[in-house]
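Ticket #360: bound-state structure for zinc ion.
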Amino acid sequence: MVYASRMRSMLAILAATLGAAACGDDPGGGGVDAPPARRLELTAAVGADGLSEELAFAVPDRTRSITVVVAGATDALYALGALRSPDGTDLVALPTGAIGPTMSTAYRDEQIGQMPGNLYQSIRLGTFAHVYPYRPGQEATAGAWSLRVAADRAGPVLVTILMPEDDGGRTLHLNVVVVSDVITVGSPPTFLDEVQGLLAPAGITVAVDQVMTLPGTALERITEGSEPQEAPDSMAAMLPALVATRLSGGGFDLFVVEGLPPGVAGLSLGTPGPPLRGSYYYGVLVRPAATDTQTARVIAHELCHFLALQHVQNVGISGMTYPDPIDDTTVGTDNLMTSGTTLTAGQAFALSRSALLTML
Ligand SMILES: [Zn+2]
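RESOLUTION: The complex was predicted; output attached.
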């Protein structure tokens, strides 16, 4: 015991010394050979030009993906203004011109929200998420990276960077939260096997950790939605707060509600979404369909959105089409990210990069 406590105090002194001499942002505060941390929280300020200062971070060896979550004002639009890999390439390479108005036009007028530049990004209100890589051929190379946040107005942001180990984890843990007085979901849910079957081509195993019922909320029927994606003050984005203090751990939340806006069978709070419990975008929603088969297809579709995937093609208000960034998908009715059930190898790769996937 004495030896252990002496060791601890020596290590504390060593860590304090290194911390003072080296990088104050490293929450690991590690020893001489400590690998870079796999989770960082950094603060930044977006300036009047729509860009933050450059934030440097180190990607450890054997990293599955770089997941960047930018949280800021709930009425501001966010994306990445730069993402520089170890060889110095800026993967975003924004075109010249005013950033904020361009983002606002893409999101509010065209109602797609695709960020200009070379990186495929979905601009978001309030909280932005990006997972790199998102298609085969990209790699979260170990080494020195940096990023800049882009926004349509100035202000502070919190940037969380997750760099999970590339450990082959393919299990997605779910909490099924039934937001209803009248819907019953079995334990395990009767739709689970079919959800599992749809995600199996991506090598993903679905585990339902618990089924929880939340009666008596005012959110049983989601009657409003916003385009192109949910806003922080939308009804759907209020669901995660219902369970924020009741659930913990790494499970992801699937909300089963009685109603969604007309024509909507399910929705994801991100494409991709922030894999951070506590975020108002941490979840997907579904209303039960006529059959478990239909319900399972919607759930699998929304889970794929949250982990990684876009629709194979979206159409903007202007009529312009926006294909997904994956080469082996084709427009049609077969794919899970249109109205079908299949996933391509490229989509499977993108899904496998999610920080939500675990080994067990
Ligand atoms: Zn969809």
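RESOLUTION NOTES: Residues 301, 305, 311 surround zinc ion (CB under 6 Å).
TICKET STATUS: resolved
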